[in-house]
From TrEMBL:
Coiled coil: none
Example GO BP: potassium ion transport
Gene3D superfamilies, alphabetized: NAD(P)-binding Rossmann-like Domain (3.40.50.720)
InterPro entries: NAD(P)-bd_dom_sf, RCK_N, Trk_Ktr_HKT_K-transport
PANTHER family linked: KTR SYSTEM POTASSIUM UPTAKE PROTEIN C, POTASSIUM CHANNEL PROTEIN 2-RELATED-RELATED
Domain RCK N-terminal: 8-85
Name the record gives this protein: TrkA family potassium uptake protein
C-alpha cells in the first residue's frame, strides 16, 4: 500500500490518536493546532508540527497542507470553526 501524506488539524483526543497511528504506520504527517500544549500530546514525533489558526488559509498553505493527499479536521469544541476550516 502506498504511504500517503496526511494533514491533521486539531490535536485533541481524536486528532492526537489518529496522528500517532498514522506516524507509526510510516506516513508523512503534518499536524497543526492553536495550542502548543496539544502538540506535546503526540507520542510519536510528526514530520511537521505547527501552531496556527486553522481558519487562516495562508498559514495552512505555508505549513504545507495544500500538498497532502488527505486532511483530517478534528476540531470538536467549535463546530463553526470546523466548518470555516473546511
Amino acid at each position: 500500500m502506498k504511504n500517503l501524506n496526511y494533514g491533521i488539524i486539531g490535536l485533541g483526543k481524536f486528532g492526537s490518536v489518529v496522528a500517532d497511528e498514522l506516524i507509526a504506520g510510516g506516513h508523512t504527517v503534518i499536524v497543526a493546532d492553536k495550542d502548543e500544549e496539544a502538540l506535546k500530546s503526540i507520542q510519536n514525533p510528526p514530520s511537521y508540527a505547527y501552531i496556527l489558526d486553522s481558519t487562516n488559509i495562508s498559514a495552512l498553505k505555508e505549513a504545507g497542507f495544500h500538498d497532502v493527499e488527505v486532511v483530517i479536521v478534528s476540531i470538536g469544541e467549535n463546530v463553526e470553526k470546523s466548518i470555516l476550516t473546511l
